[in-house]
Amino acid sequence: MAILHLDALPPKTTKGTIVRLLEQVGGLDRGRVGTIQNHGRAATVEVPDRSIDKLVSALDGTPLGTQHIRAWRETAAASTGREDHFQRLIRLLEMEADAEAARALQSIHRLTPAEAEQTGTSLVDLTIRDSDAGLGGRVLITLGKRDTNRLLPWTRLGVGSPVLLSEQESQDGEGWRAIVCGRSSDSVQLALERWPEPQGSRPVFRIDSASDEVARHRQRQALQRAAAAGGDRLSQLRGFLLGTKRPHIPEAEPVEPLNTGLNQSQCEAVAFAMAAEDMAIIHGPPGTGKTTTVVELIRQLVRKGRTVLACAPSNLAVDNVFERLLARGERAVRLGHPARVLPELRNHTLDLIVDAHPDVRLARKLVRDAAALRDKASRYTRAKPEPGARREMYDEARRLMDDARRIEAQVVRHILDTTPIICGTLTGLDSEVLGQRRFDVAVIDEACQSPEPSCWIPLLRCDRVVLAGDHCQLPPTVVSTDAAREGYGVSLPERLLELHGRSISRRLTVQYRMHEDVMTFSSDEFYDGSLVADESVRTHCLAELPGVQLTDRTASPLEFIDTAGASYDEQLEPDGESRLNPSEADLVVRVVESLVETGLASSEIAVIAPYAAQVRLLRSRLPIAGLEVDTVDGFQGREKEAVVISLVRSNPNGDIGFLADVRRMNVALTRARRKLIVIGDSATIGGHSFYGRLLKYFEDRQAYRTVWEEADWS
Predict the structure, then answer these.
(1) Beta pairing partners, 7
(2) Does the 111-211 domain belong in CATH 2.40.30.270?
(3) Are 318 and 425 in contact (CB under 8 A)?
C-alpha cells in the first residue's frame, strides 16, 4: 500500500467525505481504501500502489467546498541522503517542540509566578484594564499589573508572540490561546478568538509563552512534501538545496535601479539575484541596506512581470519590507492575523481588504439572513407548521451559508490572483488561503534567523528562491540544547554557502550606520575586511548632534572600560537560570548618566547585556524615560546613536559562557552609530582569542582605560 497525503481540506472533513472523494473523483473502489488518519484539515490515506499516481493526478487541485485540496504521494526517497536530511529535520523539529512544551509546563507547574516571570517567558499578577472589539470579530483585552504603579518587567514576549492566558491560581494549565498585539511599559494587549471566562469574580491572570502548533504542522508537512516530490520544479530545487545539483549562475546583466540611491554593491546584488535561475543569496552585513536591496529586487521582478512571494521569519521583518513596498507604490497584500501586523499597515491585510469588498458585504447579509432563519426555525413551536416547513427553513439557512462562503472564497481568490506581491511570515503561509497559487520567485528576508524547516514552506510554491540575511549575526533561536547540538540552529543560507561556496552569493559592502572605527573590528573579524563606511557616517560623532556638548566622551567613537582587579564579581541568580553583575551595573548607570548630562537624548541610548538577569537589574536602576535596555537578541536589526555593552562575566576561572558565541557579540558591537562603550573584565574574557583581539583593537585606538581611570575621566 502507498500513502496518499491530502491537505487544505475544509474544516471538519469526515472520513466518509474522504472515502466519497476517492471514489467519485479518483475512481477508487471504496473497498480498496485502507486506513485513514484524519488530522483536522489534513489527512493520510492508505491506497493501492498501482492507484496512487492516478489519485494524485485526479485530486490535486480539486475543489471541495470552498477549498482546492492538495494531494501528493509519500514515497521512499530516491536518495538515502535526501531521505536522511528531511527525516533528520523532522526529528529535530519534534525535539524542539518537546523542549518548548517542557519549558512551558515548567513555567506553569514547577516555578513560582515570580520565578516564571524572571525567565522572560511569562508575565504574572495581571488584571484586565480594558477591552475592545478587534478585527474579524476578535476580542482585544489590555492587561497590566494588579498594582497599577508597577511597570511590566523585561520579557521575551513581543508583538505577534503566541501565548496562553490563564488564571494565576489555576493548576490545570488550561486557558485561552491569544496573540500579543500591543505592548507598552505598563500594559500588554492580547487578541483572542473569544472572551475569557474566568472562575473568580476578581480574577488575577498570567500570560505564558505558547508553542505554535499550526506553524509546527506546516513545517512538518512542507518537509514531507519536499522529500516526496518527484519530476517537478520542487524536486529540481531540492537537488540544488541538498547539493546533489549545481545551480546555474548566468552572467548578470546590469539593472537600471528604480531607487537611484542604491550603491554599486546593492545594484550588483540585485542584478545577480535577477539573473539567478534557481537560487541566490544576498549577504547583508550590519548597516549595509539589506532590506532596501530586497525591496529593490522585488520591484524589479514585478517590472519584469514576475509574481513574488515575499516572506521572513517574524512579523516585524515582514512588515518592514511590506511598508517600504507600499511607500514605493507597489501593489501588495499582507497575509496573517491582523493583530500581528503594525496598526498603520492593517488596512492592507487580506482580512481587511476582503471585509471591505462589496461582494463580501452581501455575503455578510446572507450570513445574517441564515442566522435569522435558523432562529425562526428553532422557535417554530406555537402554530403547527406545515409538514417539512421547519426542515425547509434549516435547508435554506444552510444554502445561504454555503453561498456566503462561496462568495467570500471567490473574493479571496480574485485578490490573491491579481496581486503581484504577497507578503507573509514563513509559517503564516496558509495553504487553505493560498490554495494552488504559485509564484515565480520567493524572496526570504532575514533567512538566517529562521530554522531550515520554515524555509521549505514557501519553497513548495516557487520556481526560484532568493535568500537574504547575514549568517555572521544571530542564528535561529533554538530551545532544545540537543537539537542545537545536532545542527538545528544552522540556517539554510549558512548550509548552502558551505555546499556551494560564495558563487551563489553577493555581499553588500557599503554601510550607512557606524563610524569607521566602530565598524572596522567586525569588518575584519567577520567580513574579510570588506566593509566600507559611507562618507556620510565615516567620521560622525555624538558631539555633532544638535544640543550635545563637546566632551572627550562625545568626541570619540570607542571606549573599553576594564573592570579587572576591581572585584566586580558576577553572581548567579538564585534559580540558577541567569547571571548578573551588580557592581558592573552601577558603572553602567554612571556611564549612561554621563551621556545624558552631555545633552544626548535618552531615546538615542541603548544598553545591551547578554544575560536577562543583568537586563532586569539595569532596568530597575535606570528608570529613564526613552532609554532602552535589552538583550542582544532584542536589538538585532536596530541601531542607536550610543550603545553601552555590559559583558557581565567576571570570575577567576576565565569562564565566559555564551559570550563565546561571537556572532552574538558581532550583533552587539554593530548597533552603535556614533559611540560604542564596552564594559567588562579583561582578565576573564582575555583568554578567548576573539576577545583578546577585541581588547587589542581598543588599545591600538587609545580607547582602553581601567575602571579607576574612568572615575577620573568621566
Answers:
(1) 70
(2) yes
(3) yes
Options 3.40.50.300, 3.40.50.1820, 3.30.70.1140, 3.30.300.130; CATH for 214-242+264-331+421-508 is: 3.40.50.300
Cα atoms in the 13 Å half-sphere on the side-chain side of 273: 30
pLDDT at res. 407 = 86
The pair phi, psi for residue 594, each rounded to 5°, is: -65, -35
Q: Please state, in angstroms and rounded to a whole number, the distance separating the CA atoms of residues 656 and 691.
A: 10
The CATH classification number of 511-713 equals: 3.40.50.300
173 is written with which cell numbers?
494549565
How far CA 397 is from CA of 106, 376, 378, 391, 403, in Å, comes to 47, 10, 12, 10, 10
**Amino acid identity at 696:** K
- Give the DSSP H/E element, type plus range, for residue 326: helix 315-327
pLDDT at 409 over 50: yes
Q: Residues 10-29: what's their mean pLDDT?
A: 86
Average predicted confidence (pLDDT) for the chain: 90
Q: Where are the alpha helices (DSSP H) in 603-649?
A: 612-621
Query: Do 511-713 and 214-242+264-331+421-508 have the same topology in CATH?
Result: yes
Q: How far apart are CA 594 and CA 587, in angstroms?
A: 11
User: What does the pLDDT read at residue 137?
Assistant: 59
For the chain, the domains span 2-74, 111-211, 214-242+264-331+421-508, 355-417, 511-713
Task: In whole angstroms, give the CA distance from residue 268 to residue 534.
Answer: 17
Asked if 429 contacts 218 with a C-beta cutoff of 8 angstroms, the reply is: yes
Residue 415 CB neighbours (<10 A): 15
Q: 375: which 3 cell numbers?
A: 432562529
Of the candidates 402, 461, 459, 406, the one whose C-alpha atom is nearest the C-alpha of residue 437 is 461
**Whether pLDDT at 270 is above 60:** yes
Distance CA 185, CA 163 (A): 18
Give the whole-angstrom CA distance, residue 357 versus residue 640. 42
Q: What is the pLDDT of residue 77?
A: 40
- Per CATH, the number for 2-74 is 3.30.70.330
Query: Is the sign of the CA dihedral 706, 709, 711, 714 positive or negative?
Result: negative
Phi, psi dihedral angles at 629 (to 5 degrees) = -125, 125
Q: What dihedral angle (degrees, nearest 10) is formed by the CA atoms of 658, 662, 664, 668?
A: 120
Kindly give, in sequence order, each residue whose CB lies less than 8 Å from that of residue 550, ignoring residues fewer than 6 positions away. Answer: 543
Whole-angstrom Cα distance, residue 628 to residue 608? Answer: 8
Surface-to-core class of residue 108, CB atoms within 10 Å of its CB (0-12 exposed, 13-18 middle, 19+ buried)? buried
CA–CA dist 67, 430 (Å, integer)? 12
SS3 content of the chain, % helix, strand, coil (to 5): 45, 20, 35
CA distance 516 to 523: 10
Residue 257 corresponds to which amino acid?
Answer: P
Question: Amino acid letter at 182?
Answer: G
Q: Is 131 a residue whose pLDDT tops 90?
A: no
Amino acid type, 419: T
Please state the pTM of the whole predicted model. 0.83
